[in-house]
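User: structure tokens for this one?
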Amino acid sequence: MKISVKVKPNARKNEIKQSNATNFVVSVTVPPVEGKANEKLIEVLADYFGKPKRSITILRGIGGKMKIVEIL
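Assistant:
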């Protein structure tokens, strides 16, 4: 399954809001430095979907706020 994610770094808490079936807004508490926000994004999505972290891959948008994420 592929989803579109908008990431909000430096948030007060980790949170996921679903806009529709494939669009999500994910707030993470870490800054976007050295890939830490991407790591936290994968961790938060893994918890939300009940999947292991290794089954979640960022396909596009590694350096930006808008990402395409694949969940196996």
